[in-house]
Specification:
Shape: globular
Largest sheet: 2 strands, parallel
Oligomer: single chain
Low-confidence stretches: none
Order of helices and strands: HEHHEH
Radius of gyration: 14 Å
Number of strands: 2
Length: 101
């Protein structure tokens, strides 16, 4: 992981506006969003978890939303591996863009 890049982490209580704020920040910084909500990873619970709608997903790239079935085991350790993989992909994309700008 490139330690010179900054990662913004938003946390707070349910329904406090984190998702809307994340979308605004990502738009402003031309960034991407990586989910850290344990329920939002599941395909089958889209309505119950206030996942981003399709319109928002078209505006900003979202990662680790609705990619796992509730019928499959998943853990925090697996989430960390997936999150790091996505962070590294984003950093690689940014570095490539900056090198070609």
């Amino acid at each position: 992981m490139d330690r010179n890049k900054k990662i913004i982490l938003l946390s707070g209580p349910t329904s406090s506006g984190k998702s809307k704020l994340a979308l605004k920040i990502a738009q402003y910084l031309n960034g991407e969003i990586i989910n850290a909500d344990s329920m939002q990873i599941y395909k089958e619970v889209r309505i119950l978890t206030s996942r981003p709608d399709i319109k928002d997903e078209k505006i900003i790239k979202h990662h680790l939303y609705g990619f796992k079935s509730v019928k499959k085991n998943y853990s925090t350790g697996l989430w960390v591996k997936n999150a790091v993989k996505n962070i590294n992909k984003i950093i690689t994309k940014i570095n490539h863009y900056q090198a070609n700008a």
